[in-house]
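Hello forum,

I keep getting stuck at the same step: I have a sequence, I want structure tokens, and every attempt I make locally crashes halfway through. Rather than fight my setup again tonight, could one of you with a working pipeline run this one for me? It's a single chain of 104 residues.
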Amino acid sequence: MKELDVDYVLVIFGGMSGYSSDDINKFLWMIRIGGSTPEGAHIRESDYYSPSGEYKVDKDGSTAMLNSLMYKMCYYRFGEVMTEQGSQLAMTGSENQEIGNKRF
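Reply #2:
Ran it on my machine without issues. Output:
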């Protein structure tokens, strides 16, 4: 963020409401755009896919994905939220997956 001289970031998260056009669903486009610049030449889209080659935000998500700033901004403290009666599984509304990294 320092490289881009950014002071603020707005993240749209649809995990509670099931909004499927949130930023985590658009994240691969951000990776592609960032990786296409000279400053972002080190960013590789393949790092954000699971070992089976899928884009996942659950326990099978890649290390790069589960540790990315976007993931952390979207799912910060989401593991503490009860998403259904008596359950604290932290299921996303739009992907219907239990998030892979809950405690950060």
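Residues 36 and 43 are 8 Å apart (CA to CA). If your local run keeps crashing, start a new thread with the error log.
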